[in-house]
Design brief:
The structure holds two protein chains of two kinds. Chain A is an alpha+beta fold. Helices cover 27% and strands 13% of the residues of chain A. The longest helix of chain A has 23 residues. The chains are: A alpha+beta, B mainly alpha. At the A-B interface, strand 2, helix 3, helix 5, helix 6 and strand 6 of A face helix 1, helix 2, helix 3, helix 5 and helix 6 of B.
Chain lengths: 341, 327
């Protein structure tokens, strides 16, 4: 523990802050999306190792991503986005073909419309589908341009394997009323399922929308960064399964260096859109334990662009509640002052 | 949405699209998102939670009224306050346990006391408040040990203002935009709403001659509630929008009408007519319930639409002032 006690904001070693006396070095994922091929081996390996139940074999009808988002039964989620932009100096080979424009934005429009039309009860806890077919009814097929030049010259696919960020300042852990969520000696954040009583507080607390309630058993579930494997000196299942080393596991310190070097390398190769996300210990969550190399704005991948841990403002919130409580007490006193009997 | 893709959509619809259909297909806002999917998870809490916010507020206000009535010798008001508080404690406890994913594990709440978890703080507050208010009600019913009931009633009243306001911290301490951004005003909305509803209930239960303090508390509470809600609307930017839309908007409009109307009717007619006091008390109770459900649904709506998460954060970044640890 630091001399001034637990802190709610700013750079800190979370394991030391949580009271471990000489913890091992903090471990992390560095997910380099520039080499992700969208194979979803990480999703499968995670499910198999952690015995995560299926969340419906559904086709979401929006892209090659049929997982949709992270949730109680999806601890890795591979996002997929198609854009009419070039990836560095790569030639997509579209020249002279009758390829039409990307359908991604049309589908995005359909999906957001379907989400707006969906019963809210299907959202949030359900990582799965919205009825895209319903809103898409009557939408004609796109008209392909007759000749090249009308279509598109550029194309890139963005793929990203999303995961729990294991924040330095984890709102889910802070707000958990049972102590079910705890900080491990590795600096990660894990749910103890034998303690969780399904109060659901961690779920809206997470600024990334990671943790969720499993409907079938009422408890909250998320990535453990394979705590059991770490204990045995093994790397997490997703990192082990990743065929391109898009998911790299190691100590946070070393991975941050590796991430910076990789960004530089990509910039030199003409991929100027490469940037790190979540690596900065000065950010709103004190730095994510799991950070990313992205090729576009975070929100394009469904990530919040400037996330902040809710408990940052907690002392101020308690102060405001204290003043309001005093105002209520004062109103009660005033209501009786001048009472005749 | 600007991404994924770019203006491909426009080109795609140049020919062959059905007239009128294109407009609907254009994404509504200029911000990036992943297929319009939410960024944060919507709260999984069901109606139990806003119902608890309501009953928790009523019981807190009732305990305050009962304690004041006890000290000023207003026996009817004391009796109504103590009994109503006890009924609402029962309802609150039911709502809280019923909403758990694993109700049988309710007692796991008692494993720890965490100041960083408003829910943990609230659990312990309720553990202190509940038995005290219950004891006061038991004394009221049996007529025995008046000194002990008085002490218990005063202890309950001491905890009551915190009971009425901690729930605002509970929801503000989340990533839900319409809750988190309102952390300055929500405790006052909840405190005012608690006073208005408890005053309203006591007005309905107690003869007009003895209901003076209840009327005054109701009017002050309604004023605090409406004023704080007004400030919230003006002070939280984009996050105020969900309070005016959909189910939340409907509830919010009713909350204002019922709270304002109930308070005005109570102040003007509550002294003269018992029927008017009952009607305005009912309006105040309904208004407070609408307030809590409006806040609840506004938060849910703000979580369901990625706009409320992404746009303010993107604006911060574009203006070169991201949230920093050294701020």
């Amino acid at each position: 523990m630091t001399p001034e006690g637990n802190r709610l904001f700013g750079p800190v070693d979370p394991a030391v802050d949580a009271g471990y006396e000489s913890p091992p070095r903090r471990v992390a994922f560095f997910t380099d999306t520039s080499v992700c091929i969208g194979c979803k081996a990480c999703e499968v390996a995670c499910k198999e190792w952690n015995l995560v139940p299926d969340d419906g074999l559904e086709l979401l009808g929006m892209s090659y991503d049929n997982t949709g988002m992270l949730g109680a039964d999806s601890w890795r989620h591979v996002a997929f986005i198609e854009q009419n932009r070039s990836a560095g100096h790569q030639d997509p080979g579209l020249e002279g073909t009758p390829a039409g424009p990307s359908g991604s934005s049309v589908v995005a429009g359909l999906v957001s419309e379907a989400i707006a039309a969906a019963d809210a009860g299907d959202l949030g806890t359900d990582t799965g589908s919205v009825d895209v077919a319903g809103v898409a009814k009557g939408v004609p097929l796109p008209v392909l341009p007759a000749a090249a030049g009308n279509g598109r010259a550029d194309l890139r696919w963005l793929m990203m394997s999303d995961v729990c960020k294991h924040c330095t300042h984890a709102a889910c852990l802070d707000v958990c009323p049972t102590g079910s969520l705890f900080r491990t000696e590795f600096g990660t954040v894990v749910v103890q399922e034998d303690i969780c009583n399904g109060c659901g507080y961690c779920i809206p607390a997470c600024p990334y929308g990671v943790i969720d309630q499993r409907k079938s058993d009422g408890r909250a579930w998320k990535c453990t960064l394979c705590y059991d494997r770490l204990k045995d000196g093994m790397q997490p299942a997703c990192a082990q399964a990743c065929p391109t080393d898009s998911i790299q596991f190691g100590t946070l310190e070393e991975l941050r260096e590796r991430g910076e070097a990789r960004v530089e390398e990509l910039h030199d190769a003409g991929v100027t859109s490469a940037r790190l996300y979540g690596e900065d210990p000065g950010d709103g969550v004190g730095g994510a334990g799991c950070f990313f190399l992205l090729l576009d704005d975070p929100e394009v991948y469904g990530l919040p662009p400037d996330p902040v841990v809710a408990t940052r403002k907690l002392p101020e919130m308690w102060r405001r509640a204290g003043v309001a409580a005093l105002a209520l007490a004062a109103a009660a006193v005033a209501a009786f002052s001048g009472a005749r009997r | 949405m600007t991404a994924p893709g770019d203006d491909a959509q426009a080109r795609m619809w140049e020919k062959g699209g059905r007239p009128g259909r294109e407009q609907a297909m254009v994404p509504k806002a200029e911000f990036g998102s992943y297929y319009g999917r939410p960024v944060i998870k919507r709260p999984v809490w069901k109606w139990d939670i806003p119902a608890y916010f309501f009953t928790g507020g009523v019981m807190a206000g009732c305990s305050l009224l009962a304690a004041g009535a006890d000290l000023t010798g207003n026996h009817r008001l004391r009796r109504a306050g103590r009994l109503a508080a006890a009924v609402n404690i029962g309802a609150s406890t039911f709502f809280l346990i019923h909403d758990l994913g694993r109700p049988a594990r309710f007692l796991n709440m008692m494993r720890v006391l965490k100041p960083t978890s408003p829910m943990s703080v609230g659990t312990w507050l309720l553990t202190a408040y509940g038995p005290a208010a219950g004891l006061a009600a038991a004394g009221e019913v049996t007529g025995r040990l008046p000194a002990l009931s008085r002490a218990a009633g005063l202890a309950a009243a001491a905890a009551a203002p915190a009971m009425a306001t901690y729930t605002a911290v509970l929801i503000a301490d989340t990533a839900v935009p319409s809750w988190h951004d309102a952390y300055r005003q929500l405790p006052f909305v909840f405190a005012g709403s608690a006073a208005a509803s408890a005053g309203g209930l006591a007005m309905a239960l107690v003869p007009t001659a003895e209901a003076g303090p209840a009327r005054r508390l109701a009017v002050m509470g309604a004023a605090m509630d409406l004023l704080a809600a007004k400030q919230m609307e003006q002070g939280i930017g984009l996050s105020a929008d969900p309070y005016h839309q959909g189910r939340a908007g409907k509830l919010d409009r009713w909350a204002r009408r019922l709270t304002g109307g109930g308070a005005a009717a109570g102040a003007l007619l509550g002294r003269r007519s018992r029927a008017a006091a009952v009607a305005s008390g009912a309006a105040l109770l309904a208004g407070a319930a609408c307030t809590r459900f409006a806040v609840f649904y506004a938060g849910r709506q703000s979580a369901e639409d990625p706009k409320y998460t992404v746009v303010p954060q993107r604006e911060r970044l574009n203006e070169g002032r991201p949230v920093r640890a050294d701020d």
